[in-house]
Amino acid sequence: MTLEQTLSRIKGADPAIYETAIAQWDSLAKPLGSLGSLETAIARIAAVTGTPAVSLKKRRLVVLCADNGVICQGVSQSDESVTRAVTAALGEGTSTVNYMARQAACEVLPVDLGVKDFPAHPGVLSRRVRNGTADISAGPAMGRTECVQAIQTGIALARQAKEEGVEILLTGEMGIGNTTTSCAVASVLLDKDPGQLVGRGAGLSDAGLVRKTAAIRRAISINAPDPADPLDVMHKVGGLDLAGLCGLCLGGALAGLPVLLDGFISCVAALCAVRLCPKAGEALLASHLSAEPGARLVLEALGLTGFLQAGLRLGEGTGAVAALPLLDVALAVYRSGHTFGTMGLAPYTPQ
Q: Is 316 an annotated catalytic residue?
């Protein structure tokens, strides 16, 4: 199936189911809307899955791993060896998000889309498109066909998750230099100067931040990506992880799976998905507001609000995993049956 055919099959969430879920919330013995965005999140999950009987028992974090050639411009304090090491640790269950995920009863699936010089490794699913991307400040990151292949890989991973009974997908990534590519993509799609969005990533010096901003401006100038064509933007100034995450968002929407986004990088990928297919946005949930400067602008463009505002900026899907317990406790209330009727009280009404 072509990407265009896939996009045409995404129908969006069921508004009637959404209203049914909101009515369920409103019947409970508490002030109307008093659990705020948690109520909305459960209702959105109901609408995208097509049933008000929400279940989140089987959850999977997909961590897409790839390297970015732009790091040769000094945009990060680390090199590709860190991507390789963390990808291996993800497969071994010893990276930061693995410890968090075990507490949240969430499976972690690391996927190699293009970690530079990375051999097959136990626990890491190999779906390599190319051996890292090129330096975006000197030319396109990858070919358009390679970008589509990475997107299709993400769609396939979402479809496989659905077939295996997964009830909520979480997005994660690993790739040194990917805050640079994400900032470049967001700058184009939002028509903003990179200086408004760029951050220090894993911890850049002042001089490094200047280099990073300059590299992004050069990339946009040299490649001239078309903001009306998300594929053109991704293949010219993006990364394999971004394209794969875009595919996960599209695939989740197609499969009727809610997608819980991580931070800035995941949300930029989600913005690409929504620009390709607006209805895909109905499957998306934001876990947190990343500390990256551009994160708020991207969330606003998506029309989403993160549950957590804790200054998180680690990546790997850690913010998405951290938000899972909030959905769990909200779901416990949603299912409780603790209504005004059972208490013999008159319900709240809108005033």
A: yes
